Structure formats: C-alpha cells, structure tokens
Structures
1.
Amino acid sequence: MEIRVQQEPFGAGTELDAFTARASGAGAVVSFSGIVRDDSGRMAEMLIEHYPGMTERALEAIAQEAVARWNLADALVIHRFGAMKPGDQIMMVATAARHRKNAFEAAEFLMDYLKSRAPFWKQERSADGASWVAAKQDDEDALKRW
C-alpha cells in the first residue's frame, strides 16, 4: 500500500504501470485519476491546502480499511496540494484484487472518501476573486452506501 501527498505533478500512466507490476496475485487492477475541473469557465487556478502529517494518517487509515474490507492485494492513493490549473491531475487511486468486483468497489470507496472526508481544503481563484469550495450533498450521499 502506498499513500503520497505531494505538490509535484505525477504521470498516471507511469504510476499505473508501476502499481500493476507490483500487484502480484491480482486478477484485476482499477484506477481513477481526478482532474481539476473549471465549472465556471473563469477559474485561473485551484489552491489545495492540507495539514502535513494529519492528512497522510487519515489517508493511510482509510486505505487500510479498503485493503481489509475488500481483501486487496495492493492500494495506491496519490493526492496533490498547492496551486493547480484546470486540466491538471489532482489525485489518483488504484486498487488491485483477485477479482474485479472487489477492485472496483474499493476504488469507489476510496474516491468517495477523498471527495468528502479527506482533510483537504480547496479554494478556486479567478479574476473575480477567490472562494472556498463547499461540500456537495451528492458527495455526502455517496458515502452512505459504504
């Protein structure tokens, strides 16, 4: 299991190749990459803040839960912080399991957690000013299935 909170960009293809190569015994690998999205059409950048140490511990705990709950061979969570432009990769989740159902469900669980509960704070910046991104009810509702 690998958890990384980093400022630097990453290559999803490179990360997935390395993850797949070390996922011995797995019959399925599922990955998801999140990209900075500009819904307003005016965002210049998104700033993501976090508390070092606390964030990694929280992500490690939820990843350990996913590994145990879905009997994963491996899990990867990468989440960036700092200033990012629309179109930049913001995060990646990968899961490996003997069977695809477990890999898919674990990946969805991790993505839902990252969207709603992970200790990151997002601020959208544009020529009009800056505003913090509020939690969305749809994201909160997605957690109820787990």
2.
Amino acid sequence: MNIQAVEKSALPEPQDIIIETQNGRRIGARIFRASHATSVVIIAGAMGVAQHCYEKFAKFLNDNGHHAITFDYYGYGQSIHKHVKHCDTDILEWGQQDCHAVIQYAKNHFNHVPVQWIGHSVGGQLMGMTPNFNQITNAVTVACGSGYWRENSPPTKRIVWLVWYFLTPALVSFLGYFPGKKLNIVGNLPGRVMWQWRRWALNKDYAVGAEGEAMQSQFDSVKVPITSLSFSDDEMMSKENIDSLHSFYRGSDVTMIRVTAEQLGERFVGHLGWFREKFKDSIWAGQILPLLER
C-alpha cells in the first residue's frame, strides 16, 4: 500500500473564500489545509500572476505540514467583479487593504500556528506597505527586487522603456487600464496601478524614492526576519534591483541567497519559473522548505 498516497488523498479540497477588506472590497482567496500543520503560509503573488499559478506549490506545502493561503490582489483573478477599467485601486492599497485583510484572516482562523509569508516579486515589495505585517513570524521573498528600470536585467531593460515612456501613457490614458493580456505583458491591470508603478519604476529608489520619507518609515517599521531567494538568470530582476529593494527593510534581519540554475541542477529558472512543478525537488524542497522550517 502506498501510505503517502493515502495521506495525500485524505487532505481536504482547497476552499474558495472571500475576504473583505477594511474599505469593503472583496478579495478572492483559497485555503489549502494540511492534516497536521506547523504553520500557515500566505503566498503573495507577482504582479499580474493569478493565484491559481501557485496551487501546486500550495499543495506541496500541505504535503509537508503547512496550511497555505493564496489570493488575488484587487483588480484581477478572483478579485475582480467588474471590468478592470473600473477597478479604482493602486499598489499601496494592495498592501494597506488586501494584504492586511489576508493576514488578519490568517491570524483569526489559524491562531494556533505561526503565520509565514512567501512574497513573489511585488509580493515581497508589499511587505513594507502592509500595516500589520509584524504579525508575520517569518518572510521569504522570491525573485523580488525594486522595479527601477535602469537596473532591470538586460532582457527586460531593452524593452521596458517602451512600456513606461510610451505604452502606459498612451494606452492607460485612452482605455482607462493597461491591456497587458493582449500585449503579453503582465496581464490586464488597473490604470492607477500602472500609473503608480510607472512613477516608481522611473525613480532610482523605486517606491521609497517616489513616495518619500513616509514610505521609508513604513519599510523601517517591518521587524520580521526576511530571507531573499533570487536566481542569477532572472530576466527581469537584476542583483542590483534585488539588493536595492531589500536595503529598504532597515529594521529587519535580512539574509540574501542567490543561486544559479546550474547549482540547482536545472537549465533555466528565470523570474516566473520557480512555482512550476518541475522545480519541486530543486527549489520547493531544496531551497524554500528549509526556510519555512528553521
């Protein structure tokens, strides 16, 4: 008898829920419950990457003794209830409202275990914009850096100037949102998100530089230990981007881990590769799981 298969089949099916934010918005989330969990892990996804992309990784966490929560930021995925051009939100509100509400849900419903955070790309930036983030006990950022375009990795840097100087101003002004799905660039995003992201990406110090001392104070207030996991072949985030973003967390104990695909026994990882099941052994089990079980 395959004991492992029996144990996995006994896990309950993921539960689709709605989490209401303080300003009354409805955030679509999924709960993945483990049989005997030592923590609950919130998976905060990358810009324009819907929560279903992280489902297999969430189930892997279940198999290894962690509850998991995935969710979509307001304006896409399961958190959009009208046309995106009518979604009046920005990145700051994703932290202040969406992430805040998900953390509060986790604390209220899983109060017998610690809450951990995995932030992919913007999911790691938002830690410094979420008022109750210190309720998290441990944070792991994956492929997370600033979006300052002049420090982007060469494949992105060669084309992103077109997004910030031409496509965003023209398309968002005309349509009221960014039609990224048709362009195969980050997906459809609310207009305010794109305007704010553009303003940050054109500033050397990204959000902190664009928003000023108040933003730096928010990052300073984060006291959670943070481990950054990044990949040398990330076609979007360079080492400079990654180091810059984590330097904003001046009140945290930050550990930087940078690996190559060769070290992992892989050919290529990139910015959006790590959550694919092919990396179950090399990245999920080999890199991330130990950071959740320290």
3.
Amino acid sequence: MSDRPGVRIVDSADVAGDAEVGEGSSIWHLAQVREQARLGRNCVVGRGAYIGTGVVMGDNCKVQNYALVYEPAVLGDGVFIGPAVVLTNDTYPRAINPDGTLKSAHDWDAVGVTVGRGAAIGARATCVAPVSIGQWATVAAGAVVVKDVPDYALVAGVPARRLAWVGEAGVPLVPGTDHGTWRCPRTDARYIETDGVLTRASER
C-alpha cells in the first residue's frame, strides 16, 4: 500500500514519484499514473487504467477499469470515465514518418480531450482528440466522439450525435410546460434551451 498520507495505492500499481495524488484517492491493481499527472481529492483509478503524463483530474473523479486517459487530457470535478474508455491524443496517428523512420515524441504535437464537470463517458466509448465534452454531458457506451459535445447533451453512435438532453442527475430531461423549457423527472430541476444551448434555469 501507499506511503503517501491519506492515499491508497495498491502494491501492483505504478505511480510516478512526481505524480500528485490528492487526499482520499485510491489507485487499484495494475493501474499506471505517469509523471507529472495531477489527481484531485477522492479520485478512484480502477484496475489496469492508464493516466498519461501531465493529465489533470479534478476532485471526485472515477476512472474505471482499463480506461486509457492519454495526455494532455483535462478532467473537471466529478467526471466519470467508464470501463475501457479511450481518450486519444493524436488526430492523425502514424508509427513512422514519410521517410520510414520511427516517429518519436518530437515528430508530433499531442492534442487532448477536455471533459467538463460532472460529465460521464460510458464503457468503451472513444473520444478522438481534440474534443471537449461539456459539463454534465453523457457519452453513451460504445460511442465515437469526433466533435465537441455541448453541456447537458446525451450523445450516442458512430460518429456520436445528440439524442437528448440530460440533467445533473444523469437521466434524460422531459419537455417543460413552456416552449424551449425542459425538466428533470428525478430532481424537478428546470432547464432552458436557447439556440441549441441548454442552461439551468437558475443560471440565467
């Protein structure tokens, strides 16, 4: 187990010495957290997950088993990354240069995926960088995201398209009593849609 106070790191995990791991966080079997990664408080990194060099995670994030979070990804507070999710970092990948030489870290510029507060990405989904996943958005299992996802959007498919709006409780919203309004059936929170953008009614 870890010698870092307030942090649980099992013996089979590989955590770089200069990685920052917030208090209350747990890193499970065979997970790898690379150099200069910064994990917030109360994060969970599941079995076999990979957190790349310099990746930033907010507080209360969950990265499930065998997910691959490549640098320079940035995860807001409360982000859920499902099992076997991939956040890529190379839009046009190649193993070799046109002259046949092996590509190195100097032969390409890494681009990342940004995930907003409270968003969830379902099992085996792939987010092809560079894309941003909005706050409280949901990416369905198996989706392939190739363009930005708005706040509160539920997207699915290959390529992913918006199917509905979801509230902060994660369930699809239902139409409100007024045109352009939506309601969460679980919390009764109200939302307003304007020109394809959804906001909480209290935020306006």
